[in-house]
């Protein structure tokens, strides 16, 4: 037997969720490393009990396996909250915080574990137990920033009660494994709501964006990654403020180089290169942006939610009947279609990356995607290079600027090649 340091962290597979440290019987702790990611530390007194491995999403596989990347669902809905201010603050349509607030209001839970701003530089965000509707609504929006759950798990155990957690798919998977292993968690953890996820970033991503916006990264204490865009929903704006109240230059996602930093996978967690879970298929509900042509034009944002628990379906109906949300059913296929781009990275393109890892003697416990001996695509190779290069880079470093320029050129060539390929006689469209 061994522990997560040898089996997970050493291979760059740790997503820093903190589930292991939250339930371990030993003095495991989560630390923010110099690379701006969370990692567990293991005490010298480790007894090899194996608990950390059993609950780790990158060491154990949940069962039963699901057939679809979306998992089993009871229903999917597309829409947004009715309250304009809430919708504008939320990441997309605000359905996540609306549902969590409804669970509190209807006394199905006592508190929500969600991400809130700290008002400090390091860390800028943390997971905390929120007891009131106001606190939950105040937690709205997406943070492309590492957060970990060990502290709230310990609090939940100590305090007792009924909780809902909002988490990325990797943490949701770890929570499911831990819920199965520990009776106390099965009893108090009522709902896990997963945010659909293409990747998360280290703290250096925020430093880089703060630097691009003209601020000194170490002085930044407030960040909004998704301020309301002017033109289309996916051109959301990054805004940062420093200790003296100074605001940096706003950076729209698509119409500034931010999109290149994002999709070039600069500052990405290394575990995200080997993650197959797009939707959080083992959570009680999955929420995502409605990245479909008919919803992109509405800059106020639209969410899709897919529920897997009758109680959550009922909560959505209550919200609709009370006029708190405007939702309509949407098919599972359309929900999956909304994530088409990132799904490719986590499915067909993932198989050769897993195979490369397997050849180095490292196995990732996946549910559907099997390692497959095929060449890793040029774009994926570049993204892997960028991820490794930026792990230790400081904002504005010349090597990152050069890599960004290369990524831009390769992306343009790639798009051109795909366009030509689509026009060739007998082409089935974008087949990559
Ligand atoms: C790192 C990351 C990657 C994402 N990738 C995609 C993607 O590829 N495709 C897609 O459609 N959607 C993605 N999302 C989800 C999307 O950004 C929205 O969160 C989702 O559409 C729900 O929007 P909403 O308006 O309903 O949420 P809101 O009502 O704004 O509520 C969001 C809730 O999520 C919590 N939260 C914020 N950041 C985090 C975090 N890092 N970890 C855990 N909880 C958090 C907040 O505290 C809040 O309670 C991602 C989100 C994150 C954080
Ligand atoms: S004592 Fe158990 S839970 Fe703690 S680090 Fe060792 S194997 Fe993991
Ligand atoms: S449980 Fe989470 S924090 Fe712990 S080793 Fe696994 S991925 Fe890392
Ligand atoms: S891509 Fe996977 S590992 Fe990375 S943050 Fe998202 S769910 Fe976690």
The rough form would be described as globular
Please estimate the helix content.
25-40%
Mean pLDDT: 94
How would you describe the oligomerization state of the chains in this entry?
A: single chain
End-to-end Cα distance, whole Å, is 40 Å
Find the count of extended strands (DSSP E, 2+ residues). 13
SS-based class: alpha+beta
Q: What is the helix tally?
A: 18
Structurally, the number of domains stands at 2
Indicate the proportion of strand residues.
15-25%
Small-molecule binders here are: flavin-adenine dinucleotide, iron/sulfur cluster
Tell me about the largest β-sheet. Answer: 8 strands, mixed
Question: What is the radius of gyration?
Answer: 21 Å
Poorly predicted runs: none
Strands across the major sheet, in which order? 5-4-6-7-11-12-3-13
In short:
With 432 residues, the chain is α+β, with helices and mostly antiparallel strands. Helix content is 37%, strand content 16%. The strands form three sheets. Strands 5-4-6-7-11-12-3-13 form an eight-stranded mixed beta sheet, with helices on both faces.
